[in-house]
Amino acid sequence: xxxxxxxxxxxxxxxxxxxxxxxxxxxxxxxxxxxxxxxxxxxxxxxxxxxxxxxxxxxxxxxxxxxxxxxxxxxxxxxxxxxxxxxxxxxxxxxxxxxxxxxxxxxxxxxxxxxxxxxxxxxxxxxxxxxxxxxxxxxxxxxxxxxxxxxxxxxxxxxxxxxxxxxxxxxxxxxxxxxxxxxxxxxxxxxxxxxxxxxxxxxxxxxxxxxxxxxxxxxxxxxxxxxxxxxxxxxxxxxxxxxxxxxxxxxxxxxxxxxxxxxxxxxxxxxxxxxxxxxxxxxxxxxxxxxxxxxxxxxxxxxxxxxxxxxxxxxxxxxxxxxxxxxx
Length: 328
Known about the structure:
This protein has one domain (12-322): Farnesyl Diphosphate Synthase, CATH 1.10.600. 71% of the residues lie in helices and 1% in strands. The chain has helices at 12-26, 32-38, 40-44, 49-60, 67-91, 102-106, 108-127, 131-153, 162-187, 192-219, 222-225, 231-234, 240-245, 252-258, 265-276, 280-299, 308-314, 317-323; strands at 95-96, 99-100. Strands 1-2 form a two-stranded antiparallel sheet. α1 (12-26) packs across α5 (67-91) and α4 packs antiparallel against α5. The two termini are 16 Å apart.
């Protein structure tokens, strides 16, 4: 699916072209090799969800893609890309976005240093937007690390609780989406009520987004995902549908006997079939919709403080994602 199209913001593609140019500029250095490595995933493309949230939040505050807004958009995307470089090293990934991962192509050391460079560039750009934005981005990088550590601590643990799952995704996903929305509002000079409302929106949408993405890992085809369905389980990441299925009568014990360690292809497929045979997916969709409702509710105070048309484009965004799931 085209995630960006779900935002329905007029002129968004033109603004994203400006972001792409600014991203390329941000990773260009005097060292051709560092430029090549740091720009590897920039050139591979991506959803650019975080820059879109910056642009959308600025639009809600009545501001277009000004230099400050673009700088904010690039800073959050560089944080995201830097975290992907590090993730791929930890996961020993061989590909990312349809191209060889940086660690696979250049080695772990280069990937780690390139990821560090991207985080440094993001911090430099954030500092150019003022101390509040700089501190916000630094704090968010810490939250990303905390979320990833929480996920690592729960690896291959079939007793992972829903609360632990939500804490992890709040750190590793929702924190940066909330920050993206907040930076967009701050860069646009939004009023304090608008800044707080958009931050709350970004967090709640981020939670819905991650649950949606975790559901897709189980219900989508290999071709759609670009990797085998159920890959999260193979890596020992037991997401909300798995957690729900583990307590399903008549299925939980069979599923638990498969989990707790690495899975080969047949075991992964059997575990996936067990999960899909329960109501775990529909229950997870309901949980995601509750977060989507919170995202919509966060927008309500903006009716008197923001661009009504831009607010309307964000309203229902989480539900549109969930409606697009193929649960047949």
